[in-house]
Amino acid sequence: MRGLSFDVSHLLAGSLVLVSFIQLYQDRLYALLNVYALHALVLAASVAWQAFVQDAPHLYLTAVIALVFKAIIIPTALHRIIVRLGIHREIETVVGVGPTMLLGMGLVALSMVVMLRVTADADPLAREDLAFALSVVLLGLLMMVTRRNAVSQVVGFMSLENGLVLAATGAKGMPLVVEISVAFSVLIAFIVIGIFLFRIRERFDTVDVQALDRFRGERQ
Amino acid sequence: MIDALTGVIAIPAVAAALLSVLPGYRLTARLNVVAALLTFLTAVSLFIVDPRSGPYLLVDDLNKVFIVLTTFVGFTTSVFSASYIDHEIEIGRLTPAFVRFYHAMYQVLMFAMNLALVANNIGLMWVAIEMATLTTVLMVGIYRTHEALEAAWKYFILGSVGIALALFGTILVYMAARPVIGEGLEAMVWTVLVTHAAKFDPALLNVAFVFLLLGYGTKVGLAPLHAWLPDAHAEGPTPISAVLSGLLLNVALYALLRFKMLLALNPAAIAPGPLMVIMGLISCLFAAFMLYRRRDIKRMFAYSSIEHMGIIVFAFGMGGPLANFAGLLHMSMHSLTKSAIFFAVGHIAQVKGTQKIADMGGLTVTSPVLGWGLVLGVVAIAGLPPLGIFTSEFLIISSTFAREPWLAAILVLGILVALGGLFLRLNTIAFGAPRGPTSRAEASYVPMFVHLAIVFVAGIYMPPALVDGFQNVARLLG
Q1: How far is CA B193 from each of CA B178, B179, B181, B215, rounded to the nearest angstrom?
Q2: What is the largest CA-CA distance in chain A?
Q3: Exposure of B391 by Cβ count < 10 A (0-12 exposed, 13-18 middle, 19+ buried)?
Q4: Which residues in chain A are closer than 8 Å to B123, comparing Cβ atoms?
Q5: Are B114 and B70 in contact (CB under 8 A)?
Q6: In total, how many domains does chain B have?
Q7: Taking the C-alpha atoms of B173, B137, B115 and A163 in order, what is their torsion angle to the nearest 10 degrees?
Q8: Nearest Cα residue to B383 out of B402, B397, B399
Q9: I want to staple B408 with a disulfide (CB 3.0 to 4.6 A). Which of A31, A103, B123, B400 is the partner?
Q10: Of A119, A180, A200, the CB nearest to B167
Q11: pLDDT tens-digit series, residues B12-58
């Protein structure tokens, strides 16, 4: 049983990294949101598996949050928002797909090297989970850097946050995981439902962050 | 039984709930002041009755200093804010509904900052700092102009990334603690972590500290990660700029210092000092040069905050009793001076109807009290004797000269460059022929001059009790 539980968590965490990569080269917002929903789905499965393996029922709550909130509500809401904003057609990437993928691979390699080396004494499951989680975090960061559309930056941030939840659930017996995942959901709800996209649409008629740059205080 | 420790977080929480339902901005502004005053008095009482730390809340010499400073500046800022908001409503920049929201958020922010300072749990502390970030994001965007929204968005995204990195670091600290302390809540409690720190896995702690430094360093406004800071300061309401510079940066710094203490207890872990020294120096130098091309008055003082946070992080990075003492002193003096400057700047911007330096001039003639107040503030912040910041900068530089002369030379360069930049602009703003329209000032000068008076007195004479207290904390910091 030990072997199986390890393999499944490994598979799920690995899939999360894979889905992060798929996200990197999506050049349409719809597709990006669908892939993000998949990302959240894999996370939910991974968290649920951890809850089962660690015998930690409170983690099921985190899994349910990931499933309902991140995989269903948020993508649906974002779908509506981008239709209303009329920006569902394209994404611009600042860096091309090829270099982005190469950079992504570099980041994954980096996180493997760093995390596997420093956690040599930790138990193997936590250790690999942590390495995968760091990869997901870094890929999310990369996505935030290479996109200039506000919606895809938010998607990048959300996938980064999924990586953090993966790390938190992988750390066996960590307290406050549920609270932290709730806190993060609040944060995301803030952006998505919220004020920002609303006001940005209201004021600028675009969610291109570069358009925001035009209004910088000192560039007159 | 409610003790003083619970009080400093309970009062703002109750006040926030009250303020969100009460109508009438004059009433809420007063209530805001009263709540802030009560919180401050409760914080002071921490020195008299010594409450015990529990599994969730912690009190020791280190956070007492931070709590008292935070609640004091929180109180004076609420006094300033009352007159500032009055004017904003008069000219129609804010509607009463927004003001209600603003006051409620002000108390939520005080709650979050105090919670971060008293939390005895690294997870709870993280949640509190996240909460403080969110509330300030909302307040920065409150004017809903293009610039305010861009500033809030930038702050939000960068702040979130910083917070995410800090959480990863927090998880890693837990991972390091778990094999020693065991699973569960205990492995995230400061007081427990500190007693077992020597047995933690050093490699994990090292990586954790890098993440924490980047994460909380973003909130401190350290150089490569500072981009949110000038915008957030310039576009939000000025009381928020004062609270951001004077307090929120300190709270993030406090988190960093706690983790530094943790690392210092583990002999096999890397020394956190050099990393902090490097980031501090880069911030100080970078911000000093950036001061020269500023056209917006609040933006200029935001860069000055980056410079001073750099100096403070540098001092704590150098470590040792003297440098820590100087760092603490510098932090307190900077909080007081910078918020005083923002009090002046807030009223100046209202009097002039603009934040552009080019449209200001001859303030000492047109509005003498504000103008001279600003001059005094800038003299203090630039580190000229006999004011408090001179004392702390002198201590930092002289203690560094004894150990690492080259580093001290770089620091001196940064401070001198910043001094030049500040006086260049001050000359335009405060002296010369009056420029631009001037309306009458209905300012409350008391908070500004109280702060400046404290800074002035501290530069000449420090009460022995205060010196003892700071020395005690400095030893604690290692």
Answers
A1: 10, 12, 8, 20
A2: 66
A3: buried
A4: 175-176, 179-180
A5: yes
A6: 1
A7: -20
A8: B397
A9: B400
A10: A180
A11: 999 998 888 888 778 888 899 999 999 999 998 888 877 777 778 88
